[in-house]
From TrEMBL:
EC number: 4.2.99.20
Keyword Lyase: yes
PANTHER family documented for this protein: 2-SUCCINYL-5-ENOLPYRUVYL-6-HYDROXY-3-CYCLOHEXENE-1-CARBOXYLATE SYNTHASE, PROTEIN PHYLLO, CHLOROPLASTIC
Keywords per UniProt: Lyase, Menaquinone biosynthesis
Top-level taxonomy: Bacteria, Bacillati, Bacillota, Bacilli, Bacillales
Pfam families: Abhydrolase_1
Name the record gives this protein: Putative 2-succinyl-6-hydroxy-2,4-cyclohexadiene-1-carboxylate synthase
Domain of life: Bacteria
Entry function: Catalyzes a proton abstraction reaction that results in 2,5-elimination of pyruvate from 2-succinyl-5-enolpyruvyl-6-hydroxy-3-cyclohexene-1-carboxylate (SEPHCHC) and the formation of 2-succinyl-6-hydroxy-2,4-cyclohexadiene-1-carboxylate (SHCHC).
Gene source species: Jeotgalibacillus salarius
Any GO BP: menaquinone biosynthetic process
Membrane spanning residue stretches: none
Pathway(s) per entry: Quinol/quinone metabolism; menaquinone biosynthesis; Quinol/quinone metabolism; 1,4-dihydroxy-2-naphthoate biosynthesis; 1,4-dihydroxy-2-naphthoate from chorismate: step 3/7
Similarity annotation: Belongs to the AB hydrolase superfamily. MenH family.
Quaternary data: Monomer.
Length: 272
């Protein structure tokens, strides 16, 4: 489904019936990230998967306005209004988790529970943000100069995704194909304007979120385990689950465990 928000056209995939659950993918992903998950949850939930700007089939002008975190959150609010959804649970992975968290801070009345998979509230200090923004700019330039295939080769080798080498060749090819279906222009703009260095830090606002929060991390993803532990102390109502034999992309590496954890959380915190 194509939903227009100002000059952007968002690709939104809606499946299933039941209480609404918004699904937000990570950097280089798309709504395809959630296809298997949606098939498992469609009998109990209306699943709203959104291609974020610069990704999948969403098309947006390649300027800063359409990629800034606050404006992306405003667009998600607009999408929910157009779909007549007053409130939903949110599940975000990595970049999608940053987005889901930002949305929960900015539009709390729309969110009844929050699931963050391998996500963060941004970077605490200006110095950290400046350093990250510089590195994101360098990577964006690499994508533009070298092309999507060479970037994907490089991206697959970063330590964050080391554990994905344990996946079957078919699974790895599926993930690679999803990445390659994006565009150099879209990914570059996403890095420049929606990257961790560009977004505001929400660390100081975690204590205003009163809804139930589930933080999920993989045992091999030490960086995000540490972040989740710090976040848990600041949220009013959060639990942190570490899934064994998994790295950053838990929904791919340990799908059954991931599904069970998410389902139990949603049932426990059901508002219906």
């Amino acid at each position: 489904m194509d939903i227009q928000v100002k000059e952007a056209h968002y690709n939104v995939q809606i499946t299933g019936k039941g209480s609404p659950l918004v699904l937000l993918h990570g950097f280089t992903g798309s709504t395809a990230t959630w296809k298997r998950f949606a098939d498992c949850f469609k009998n109990d939930h209306q699943l709203i998967a959104i291609d974020l700007p610069g990704h999948g089939l969403t098309s947006a002008p390649l300027n800063e306005h359409y990629f800034l975190m606050e404006n992306v959150c405003e667009a998600i609010q607009d999408i929910l209004d157009q779909l007549n959804i007053d409130q939903a649970a949110f599940l975000g992975y990595s970049m999608g988790g940053r987005t889901a968290l930002a949305f929960s801070v900015l539009y709390p009345e729309y969110v009844n529970s929050l699931i963050l998979e391998s996500a963060s509230p941004g970077l605490k200090t200006t110095a950290e943000r400046v350093d990250r923004k510089t590195r994101d700019e360098k990577l964006a330039t690499f994508i533009e100069n070298e092309g999507l295939e060479r970037f994907t080769d490089k991206w697959e080798e970063i330590p964050l995704f080391e554990s994905q080498k344990k996946l079957s060749p078919e699974q790895r090819m599926e993930i690679r194909s999803e990445r390659l279906r994006n565009t150099t222009e879209g990914l570059s703009a996403s890095l420049r304007y929606m990257g961790t260095g560009s977004q505001p830090s929400y660390w100081s606002m975690l204590d205003v979120i009163g809804i139930p929060v589930l933080l999920i991390t993989g045992e091999w993803d030490r960086k995000f385990i540490d972040i989740a532990k710090k976040m848990k102390k600041l949220f009013k109502n959060a639990e942190h689950q570490i899934i064994l034999q998994a790295g950053h992309a838990i929904q791919v590496e340990q799908p059954e465990k991931f599904d069970t954890m998410v389902r139990e959380f949603l049932v426990k915190n059901s508002t219906t």
